[in-house]
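Chapter review. Work through the record for Peptidase M23 before attempting the end-of-chapter questions.
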Amino acid sequence: MKRKGQASIAALVLGLMFLIGVGGVVYMFTSDTFEREAPQIALAKEIEWNLKEPLKIQVGDTSGISFVEAALFDGEKSVVVDTKEFKEKQQVVDINVSFPKMGLNPNQKVFELTIKAIDQSKWNFFAGNTAEVKAVIKVDTKRPEVNIINNSYKITKGGVATVVFRAYDEAMKSLYIETNFGKKFYPTPFYKEGYYVSFVAWPTVIENFSASIVAVDRAGNISRFNIPYFLQDKKYRTSTIALQDRFLEGKISDLIAEVAPAQSSLSSLEKFKYVNEDMRKGNEEEILKATSNVPVEIIKDFRLKPFYPLRNGQVVASFGDHRFYEYNKQPVSESFHLGLDFASNAQAPMQTSNDGIVVFARENGIYGNNIIIAHGLGVYSLYGHCSSYMVKEGDSVKAGETIAKTGVTGLALGDHLHFGMYVQGVDVRPEEWMDEVWLKESVYSVMDASKKMIER
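C-alpha cells for Peptidase M23:
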C-alpha cells in the first residue's frame, strides 16, 4: 500500500510538472514577452546622400528596442557611426546617421550602410530577436541646375506674373516656387524636357512680394534662384458698411436657415458674424481645394482670350475691397471682396470666354450656386450667385458657351454675377485676365520669347 501511495504521488508530481512545462511552452509562444518578430528597420535599398544632412532612419518593435548600431563600409574598412542602447521600453526609435569626421574617405562615391537592431523580447534564450538591413549609399554633393529663361517684367499687388525656367537633376525630388508668405507654386513642364513654366500670384493682403525657384534632389542638395520681378504696389478700396436690421433679419436669417440651421438660435449680429467669418472661411476653403490643382503633363503653348463673362454687364463692386461692417457705429466684422461683381438684366446668361473643365458646380454658402472652371496651368474662373446651372462637374465647356444665369443665391442682395479668377488657389485681379494687352505682355510674350531661346 505504501509503495502504491508513493507511486501515485510520483505520478501526480510528474503530471503537474508536465502541465507546468506545457503551460510554460504555451506561454513562451503566446506571450508578448517572448515574441519572435524581428525589429522592423525602415531603410531603402538605395539612398542618395550629400554627406551633409544626417540620414534619418526609424526602427520599431512591439516588445521595444534594446540596441541599435549603424555602420558605414567603404569597401575596405567599416566604421561604426552610431550606437544606442535602451533600457526603457521604446517601441519606435529614430537614429540619425552622420558621416564620420575620420576613418572613411569622403571622396568615395559609394558606401554600404548596415543597420543592426535587437529587441527586448526574451526569445532566443533571453537574447532577443535581431534584424540587420543593408543599403547602398550613393554620394551626391552636386546641387540641381536651375536657371531662368524668361519672366514677366513686373508683378502688381493682387496680380500675376509668369516665369519660364530650366531645372535639371538626375535625382530630382521636388521642384516648386517658394514665396515670402509661405505659398508654394508648382510649375508645369513646358515645351521641351527639363523646362518649366508657372504663374505666381501676389495676394492683396501681403504687403511685399518675393519668389524663388527651389529645386531639391533626393540627396538633400538644394538650389534656390530668385525671380527678379519689379514690384508694383496697388492700393485697394476700403469701405465702411452700416448694417441694417432689414438686412440682418432678412437675407442673413434666410441664409442661416437655408445653409446653417443649427445656428438659428444666434442673435442677428451673431448670425452675421457667423456668415461673414465662419461660413465665409469654409466656403473659401472649398474654393481653395477646387482651384489648387496644377497640370503635370508637358504643354507646348498656352493661350486664353480675355474674359467677358456677362454681356453688357456693369461693374458694381470691385476686387480687393476691404469691407468693415458696423452696427450703430460699433465695429462688428470685416472681410475682403475676392472678385468683381457684374450686374445686367435679371437672370442674364453668363458665358465662359475660354475652353475648360467644370471642377465645381454646387451650392457654396455665401457664393450661392457656384461654378468653377479650370483653364489649364493652374488658372481657374469662378462664377457665384447663379440662379441655375447649365453645366455639371466634369463637363468640358467651350468658349462662348452659356454655363448659368445670374441670380441672388448666397449672400447676394440684388441679381448679379460674382466673377473671380484664381491661380493655384490664390484669388487674383480679374481685370488682368480681361485685358488683352496684359495677357500679351505678361504671358504670351514671355512664353514665345522663351521658346525661341530654348531652340537656340
